[in-house]
Design brief:
The protein has 17 helices and 2 strands. The mean pLDDT is 89. The protein is flat, with a radius of gyration of 30 Å. The relative contact order is 0.10. By secondary structure, it is an all-alpha fold. Strands 1-2 form a two-stranded parallel sheet.
Amino acid sequence: MTQIPVDHPERERALDPEGSFIVQAPAGSGKTELLTQRYLRLLSLVNEPEEILAITFTRKAAAEMRNRIIKALTVAGSEPEPDEPHLAKTRELATRALKQDKKLGWNILRNPARLKVRTIDSFCLYLTGRMPVLTGLGGDARVMEDPRSLYEQAARRTLLELKGDSRWHDPLSVLLLHLDNDWARAGGLIMEMLGRREHWLRLVGRASGEEDLRSLLEGQLCLEIERRLNKTRLLFNRFTSPDEQKAFFECACFASLNLSSENKVSAITALEGLDRLPDARISSLDKWLGIMEILQTNSGSWRKGVDKRIGFPAASSCADKDSRNQAARKKVLFQDFLKALAGHGALQESLAELASLPDTIYSDETWEILSALLQVLKMAVAQLHLVMQDKGLVDYPEISM
């Protein structure tokens, strides 16, 4: 007798078309089968197959999904009922879908193109084709699968604006001076940013002036830093128990007080009085950097040595017996905590990334370079549009936007 999976009720709930669901499960657990079943369930309810849309990332995944649906419909009308519960459920749903197919005359098996299983890019392309005036593309756009030659031409045209009395002369000069007059590198950077323009162009276009743009981008920096801090905080809570955290806070406060008493310059001194994990706000960044400093070496690996450089003096250097006992106990406690962290690579990597976080406010020198770059990139986007118009081609970022 085939055993029914323990998550059977959840699988049944996910087939309810009145609700929305997120399905999370390991590889090989039947997520694609469940998605196929939901699609078949919807086919038994709609008036036209085109009312259902399934979107995935790759063509391979879309093809697999479409093939599973077609196979389920084909098998339901020709083969005996299977013994396995999940396959029997698929057959049941496919049989209902076939009844709807026959009732409304879809003839899906002869017209499988009516099953809308698409990649994100192909769905965006479909939408732009339906709205030629609104999108400004004028009809079915021809998409260039490898648009690097378009980016290269746009980058070259942009850099050539350096010659003559172009209004782009000054920002181009600032950018090239920053890159040691390396035209090839500048062209490569422009090409790279053109390929990602759907991520930054709208943000840059929202600003009403240079000061507004600077404030807007600094705000985005803060949001990204807080996102990284939140990720690290979640991992810390995931991989350490409340008792382990309590021991860590005790050791961190001990190390902080020792370094402060000796006037040592260290990020660890920000951990004075720490009794819980810092929140994920910018105002707590100094505490997270202190946590990174006390737990990791400069190379981003977990510390193995525990000594006075990070606030744990040798017991023999302490003046009295109580101090010696305390120093020895704290050192052992902290070493035990480090051993508990040894296998947690995700937390190690997330903490190490904090070392490379940028400042939350641009210096005037940095802003001068960044402002010049943004002006050059706007020009590059305009040049790219001209190149695409000349050739009658677009790329997928253009379709997405």
